[in-house]
Each structure stands twice: as C-alpha cells, then as structure tokens.
C-alpha cells in the first residue's frame, strides 16, 4: 500500500495582514445522479432537451399527483456512500424544504434534513505524491433539483424551464476540514473522480452536473486544533457561504478573495456576518447575496406523501460487492504491480477508462515502459489533438509497438515514427515496419560497413576524435543518419568505439 501521510497544514501567512490566520473550509457539493429518470417521476433527465419537454405532471406540481421514488436513484446514492466509506442508514426519511420561487412549482423541494440516507464517511485528498489529507464527510442526502429561470431571452419577461425540476441530486456535505484554496480544488477533483469511477454522477461541471457551495471562515493559529479536539464550532470563525461554484479555478479564486476580505474586516475591528455570497469571476470578488437575517426560513417538515425509506442490509451488501476498484486502491496497485512512480500512477488512474486503457496497453510487456509511452507519447498527442487516447492508438497498437522495441526490432525513435504513421494511416504497427523497411539493423556486418564508410570519408574528424573521445558521438549520429535511424544504437556505439580505437 501507499505510504500516505496525513499532514496538518501550516498556518497561512497572508501578505499585508497584521497576524497569522488559518483558513477553514467546508463544502456542500451537489452531484446530479446519473439516472435516466427523475427522482420521483419517469420524466427524462436528458440535458439540453427542448425546454419544458421533460416534465411529468408531478414535476409541474399538478394537483393530486403523488411522488413515487426511483429505486435506481437510491441505489446510486448508496453506492456513492459506500465509495466514500460512509455509514449507510437503513432507515431515512424525506422532508419538505419550503420556499417560493418561480422555477419550483411545488413551492417546496423534497430533501432529507433530519434523517439522511448516508452518514459519516471520508475522502483522502491528494495534495502531492505521498501526501494526502483526510476530509471527513458529514452526510449525503438525496433531494430534488429545481428548474431554471431564464432572464436573458426577453427584455421584459422571464421564462421558466422545468426540465431540470425533480432531477435527483446527492448533496455531499463535508466537515470543515479543508484548509486552503488548493486543497478545496483537490477535494472537488477527488470527489468528482470517485463519483465517475462509481458511475453515479457524470461530473460534468460545465453542465452543472456537479456544483459546490463553499463555506469559508478564518481563525487564529491554534483555534482549529481546539475545534478538532472538542468538535465545538465556537472555536472557529463565522463563515460565509459562496454559492454554486462550478469551476475549480473559480473555487480557488473565490476562497482566496473571501479569506482576504474576512481578514481585512477582522483586523480593522469589524465582524464577519454570516451570509450567502456569490462569486463574480469578471471582477474576481464575492458579493453579498443574502444575509442571515434575510435567510430563508424553510420550515422543514416530513413529507407526508412519502413513507420513510427503509432498505435492507442484504441489498446494501450486494451494492458493496459490485463496487469497482476505486482510485486510491488502483493507484496503489499500479505502483506495486507495474513499478511506476506514484505521480505516474495518479496520472494513469485519473479516470477509469484511462486506467483500463493503460492496463490493456501493457499486455504482457513492461509496465513502467508502457506507462512512459502512454503518458508521453499517447496522452501528449491526444491532449494536443483533443482526442481520447483510444482515438490516437488502440491499446493493442501500443502493445505491438512496445513489443517490437523490447525485441530490439525497432528503436524507440522509430517507435514514435511508427505511432505517427499509424495515426495517419491506421495501419497495424507490424505492417508499417515491414512495408517501410523500418526494422532496426542489428546485423553488425551492415553497421560495420556504414561505420567504415564514414571513417574513410572523414579522416580529419577521425584524428579529432582520437584526441577527444567525446567526438565519437558525431560518428554515431552519422551512422544513424545513413541508416535512416534504423541501426541499433547500442551496436553502433560499440562498433564506432572499436573502430576508432577508443
Ligand atoms: P447549512 O449551510 O445548511 O446551515 P451546516 O451548518 O451543516 O449547514 O454547514 C454547511 C457547511 O459549512 C458544512 O460543509 C460545514 O462543514 C461548513 N462549516 C460549518 N462551520 C464552518 C466554519 N466555521 N467555517 C467553514 N465552514 C464551516
Ligand atoms: Mg449550506
């Protein structure tokens, strides 16, 4: 297993501040469940459909309609809980969160406040190779998403699209264990990675599949440790919540701005007021949206239309047995099984498809060499062309090229040429090498011939090389050129050395 260290971060020194301050961050991530139908209706969840085309009577809150829970959504939330090593509550319940908004026809959102489906869990957040920080998960509950108000289509009117109304969200709430902007982004990255491994959420942040409310406060050194020991929140500073962040970069910028704002306020004798703020990326600042006094009073109460949700331990165990290998385990296995560095292992396990692609590319070959090949040659080209690695070369193509390198049939330089030709023509590597005569010349006779010719043609260079053996490299280069890069470099080196008497 990997040797992970769980470090407590050092206090941040914020330029311009009179004192040292520490940041404390807790996240509420809304992750849309990857299901075809909504949480309480059979309407489709398809993104980008014609407005108001995926709306069942219950989503539009027609009188007399009753919610029927989507078992698949519950299963995905349980799966997510298990993936985050969390406690699954066999009994949970749904509550109504009441508020009035045009995109919420029911006048309430069905959510889980008092008895969530999933309890405490954890995420190991990767900071740098060998360093991970544990962030505790407080709970995961299921809830309905709201619809969408559209204000920019008409100067005088607003429109409403109810396609998203009633889509199942998992709200994943962390403890305030995140200690800086980079860690916050790393947390969302890791959570997104796990969700995608589990297949429970697509994690498409641009489409709003995954969005985060970021709670930020600041405290003086020592206060966080006092909170940790007692779990008493009064040791922490007052927090502000920045709503609806859907970009890793903006999350970091918003936290950075918010921390500075709070510190400046506190150091000038002011007080942080608990409130909801919005981040404006154009101005790189957060702005107040509503203060606690104006905060909604949601008047939560148990939803009388829904029975408490009771699930069986056997069912949960069945889901647990079907979990895939998750990123931490896969990364550790790649390090032990393939001898790759932890950094390479994290690149290769960034997503499940890439990890599978790498393993298929290894075939029976050398793991470390395959890792270098996939990362440097395939991913390099794929990223540049904005293609999937599979579209650059199938795993079998990588395996075939690397097998030829291992058998000394082609040099690593020619291997790259073969890959380029394959990308252009789609031809199999073996065919490319045979048809274009790219096989490495290991026949020492042929190499000797080439070396002899170059020595004979360049007597002056020979004299120089005898004085300065480093110049032998020039001869090696000439031989490689003369053989179109096909000569076995090891053999060329040896023969050049011997012939020059070095
Ligand atoms: P709500 O926002 O609905 O009132 P909570 O009070 O449970 O819910 O807190 C929401 C989030 O705020 C959680 O992620 C929690 O970890 C985080 N949080 C609570 N107190 C602080 C604090 N002092 N600083 C930063 N984050 C905090
Ligand atoms: Mg909140």
UniProtKB/TrEMBL annotation:
Ubl conjugation listed as a keyword: no
Entry GO MF terms: asparaginyl-tRNA synthase (glutamine-hydrolyzing) activity; ATP binding; glutaminyl-tRNA synthase (glutamine-hydrolyzing) activity; transferase activity
Alphabetized InterPro entries for the sequence: Asn/Gln-tRNA_amidoTrfase_suB/E, Asn/Gln-tRNA_Trfase_suB/E_cat, Asn/Gln_amidotransferase, Asn/Gln_tRNA_amidoTrase-B-like, GatB, GatB_C_1, GatB_Yqey_C_2, Gln_synth/guanido_kin_cat_dom
Superkingdom assignment: Bacteria
Catalytic activity reported: L-glutamyl-tRNA(Gln) + L-glutamine + ATP + H2O = L-glutaminyl-tRNA(Gln) + L-glutamate + ADP + phosphate + H(+); L-aspartyl-tRNA(Asn) + L-glutamine + ATP + H2O = L-asparaginyl-tRNA(Asn) + L-glutamate + ADP + phosphate + 2 H(+)
UniProt keyword annotation of Protein biosynthesis present: yes
Boundaries of every Asn/Gln amidotransferase domain copy: 356-500
GO biological process, one term: translation
E.C. designation(s): 6.3.5.-
Keywords: ATP-binding, Ligase, Nucleotide-binding, Protein biosynthesis, Transferase
Gene3D superfamilies: 1.10.10.410, GatB domain, N-terminal subdomain
Protein family membership: Belongs to the GatB/GatE family. GatB subfamily.
Subunit structure, as described in the record: Heterotrimer of A, B and C subunits.
Function: Allows the formation of correctly charged Asn-tRNA(Asn) or Gln-tRNA(Gln) through the transamidation of misacylated Asp-tRNA(Asn) or Glu-tRNA(Gln) in organisms which lack either or both of asparaginyl-tRNA or glutaminyl-tRNA synthetases. The reaction takes place in the presence of glutamine and ATP through an activated phospho-Asp-tRNA(Asn) or phospho-Glu-tRNA(Gln).
Name assigned to this protein: Aspartyl/glutamyl-tRNA(Asn/Gln) amidotransferase subunit B
UniProt source species: Roseovarius spongiae
């Amino acid at each position: 297993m990997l040797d992970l260290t769980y470090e407590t971060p050092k206090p941040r020194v914020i330029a311009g501040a009179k004192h040292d301050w520490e940041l404390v961050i807790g996240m509420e991530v809304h992750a849309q469940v990857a299901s075809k139908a909504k949480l309480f209706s059979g309407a489709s969840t398809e993104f980008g459909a014609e407005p108001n085309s995926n709306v069942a009577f219950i989503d539009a809150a027609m009188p007399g309609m009753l919610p029927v829970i989507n078992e698949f959504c519950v299963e995905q939330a349980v799966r997510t809980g298990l993936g985050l090593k969390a406690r699954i509550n066999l009994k949970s319940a749904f509550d109504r969160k009441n508020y009035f908004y045009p995109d919420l026809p029911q006048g309430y959102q069905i959510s889980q406040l008092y008895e969530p489906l999933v309890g405490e869990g954890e995420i190991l957040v990767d900071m740098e190779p060998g360093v991970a920080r544990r962030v505790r998960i407080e709970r995961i509950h299921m809830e309905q998403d709201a619809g969408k108000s559209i204000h920019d289509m008409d100067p005088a009117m607003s429109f409403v699209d109810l396609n998203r109304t009633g889509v199942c969200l998992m709200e994943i709430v962390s403890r305030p264990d995140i200690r800086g902007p980079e860690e916050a982004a790393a947390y969302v990255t890791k959570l997104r990675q796990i969700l995608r491994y589990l297949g429970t959420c697509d994690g498409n942040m641009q489409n709003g599949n995954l969005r985060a409310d970021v709670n930020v406060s600041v405290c003086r050194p020592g206060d966080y440790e006092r909170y940790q020991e007692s779990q008493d929140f009064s040791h922490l500073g007052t927090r502000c919540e920045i709503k609806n962040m859907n970009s890793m970069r903006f999350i970091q910028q918003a936290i950075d701005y918010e921390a500075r704002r709070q510190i400046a306020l506190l150091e000038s004798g002011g007080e942080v007021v608990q409130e909801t703020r919005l981040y404006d990326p154009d101005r790189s600042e957060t702005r107040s949206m509503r203060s606690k006094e104006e905060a909604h009073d949601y008047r939560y109460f148990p939803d009388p239309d829904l029975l408490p949700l009771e699930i069986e331990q056997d069912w949960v165990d069945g889901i647990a047995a079907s979990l895939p290998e998750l990123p931490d385990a896969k990364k550790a296995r790649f390090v032990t099984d393939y001898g790759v560095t932890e950094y390479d292992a994290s690149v290769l396990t960034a997503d499940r498809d890439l990890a599978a692609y790498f393993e298929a590319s290894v075939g029976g070959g050398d793991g470390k060499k395959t890792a270098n090949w996939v990362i440097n040659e395939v991913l390099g080209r794929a990223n540049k062309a904005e293609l999937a690695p599979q579209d650059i070369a199938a795993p079998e193509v990588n395996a075939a090229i690397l097998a030829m390198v291992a058998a000394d049939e082609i040099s690593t330089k020619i291997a790259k040429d073969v890959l380029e030709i394959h990308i252009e023509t789609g031809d199999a590597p073996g065919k490319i090498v045979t048809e274009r005569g790219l096989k490495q010349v290991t026949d020492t006779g042929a190499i000797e011939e080439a070396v002899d010719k170059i020595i004979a043609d360049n007597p002056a260079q020979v004299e120089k090389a005898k004085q300065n053996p480093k110049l032998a490299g020039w001869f090696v280069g000439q031989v490689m050129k003369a053989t179109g890069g096909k000569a076995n470099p090891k053999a060329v080196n040896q023969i050049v050395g011997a012939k020059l008497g070095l």
